Amino acid sequence: MNFNTHLDNSNYLNTFPKLILAVVAGGVVGVTTTSDGTDDGRAKIRMAAEQLNDYFVIARIKAYSNTFKYHLKPKACYSTYILKSKRSAKTKSEPGHVEEVEEGEGRDSNKAPKRQKRITSSSCKDNERKCVICDRARESCGTRNRVLYRISESDRAALFLDALNFYKDEVKTRCAFLDTAGDVFAADVFYHGNCLRQYLLKYKRQIDALFENIQRSDEAATIDSNCKCVFDSLDFKTSSYSVSHICNLINAKLETDNQIDNRRTKVFLIKYFKDTICFTYPDDRRKSQMVYSSSLLQGNIIESLRSSVKSGPQKIALELLHECKNYDFGLEATYCTSEDVKLSLDHYRSHRPQQWLQFMKFMFPNTSNTNTDEWLLKFDTLFQFIHYWLSSGRNRTPFHCSLTQTVHNLSRSRQLVDIMNRMNLAISYDSMQRLNTAVAQKMVEETLPNRCPW
DNA sequence: GCAATATAGCAGAATTCGAA
DNA sequence: TTCGAATTCTGCTATATTGC
Hints:
Elements: H1 3-8, H2 10-15, H3 19-26, E1 34-35, H4 39-51, H5 55-64, E2 70-71, H6 77-92, E3 139-141, E4 144-146, E5 148-150, H7 154-167, H8 170-174, H9 181-187, E6 190-192, H10 193-233, E7 241-242, H11 243-253, H12 262-273, E8 277-280, E9 290-293, H13 298-311, H14 313-326, H15 338-350, H16 354-363, H17 372-390, H18 398-411, H19 414-422, H20 429-446
Antiparallel strand pairs: 1-2, 3-4, 5-6, 7-9, 8-9
Helix pairs in contact: 3-5, 4-6, 7-9, 7-10, 10-11, 10-12, 14-17, 15-18, 18-19
This protein binds a DNA duplex (20 and 20 nucleotides) through helix 6, helix 10, helix 19 and helix 20.
C-alpha cells in the first residue's frame, strides 16, 4: 500500500483514531495533553499500528524513530488506540464480523472514536428494506412506529431457519436462498420486531405441541399406574379428600415434568371409580373441591372435609399468600428517596398485616421473652422479602430500596448488587440507577435557573 | 384472544476514574 | 503511566398489563 496516497487523502485523516495523528505529526501539541511516553508504551503503539495495518501511523513512527510522543489523559489516545488494536485482533479471529469505518465529517480530531453502533432500528431507515415476514417496509401504525431490525445473532438466525423449514410458507419462498445462519447474516434479513416474535412464537408452540403428543402416549401409561396406586391407598368409605389433595399425592409420585392438574385427577377418579364416587360443589367456591364414596353419608362428608381443610397447611399458606401479595407499600409512584422509604415503612408499621404477624408469633413463640421491636424488625424484613418475591421484583419494598442503596454506597460494586438482586435481596442495579437518575432530573427541574440544585 | 404498551433485566461498548 | 473496575449509554428480549 502506498503511504503517500493516504497521506494526501484528507478524509483518511478523519477515519483513523485521532490519537497519534496530531501528536506524532506535529510533535508537542499541548503541555496538558501530551506526554513524552515510555519505550514500553511506544513499543505497544508500534504493535497496535501493525495489528491495525495503520500505515499512516507506521510511517510516522518510522519518521520520528524512537522519540515520538503521544496523547495520554485526558484525551486517552494511547488507551483508545491500544484497545482498538486488541478488538481488531479479536474480531479477525471471528468470521462474519464487519469492520466498522467511522464517518469522519464534523468530528473533533482530538476526540476518541465513538463506539461501534449496532445495526438496529435506528440505522434501518431505508424504506426499500422490507420485513421478511410481512413483506412490508418500515411504517407507522397508529401511534406506533414499526421499525425494521436485522437478524444479527446466530441463535436467532438458526431458529428462524428452523421455522422456515418447518412451515415452508411464503416466507420460505422469499428466503429460499438461505441455508445456514451465515447466509442469514450475509443476506441482511430484516424484520419487524413483532412480526418475527409472533412467527417464532407460533413455531415454538407448534413444535411444543408435537413433542407433547409424542410424549403423551408414554406418559399416559405411567400416570395411570401411579393414579391406581394412590387411589388404592385412600379410604373413600370412611374419609373424604379434596381433589387437590389427591392431585398432590399423585404428583408426588410422578416426575416433575409429568405433573397433572386437578381436572385430570378428576377424570382419572371417574374413570377408575365410575359411579361409586361423588363430588360436591360448595356454594362459596363454585368449583369441584371434594370427592367421596357413595357409601358415606353426605353430612359426615362435609364435616370431614371441613376439619381436613382447616388443619391443612394449604389454607394457611393461601391466606398468607393473599395478605403478602396484596399489601401495597406505595413506593411505585415515588422516587424511593429516603423520605419515601421512611414514610412507607412508618405506614407499614402502623398497619402490619395481622395474619402474618399472628403466623410469625406462632412460629417463634419465644418472641415475648426478647425485645419485641427486635423481633418485629425480623418479621417485617421477612414479609418484605416474600412480598418482593411474589411480585417477581415488580413491587419495591422499603427493605429492598434502602438495602440496595446502602450496599452500593458502601461497596460501589455493581456485581454485589446484581448478586443480591438474583437472590431477591435487592432491586436490580438498573432499577437503582433509574431511580437515582429520576431523582436527579426532578431536582434539576425544580431548581431555579442559574442556581445549583444543592 | 390478540395487539399494543410498559417495564425489568441483561449485555455490549465506550468512557471515566482511581490506585499502584 | 498503566491497568482494571465502575459507570454510562444504548439496544434487545421477556413478561406483565391494558384496552379493544
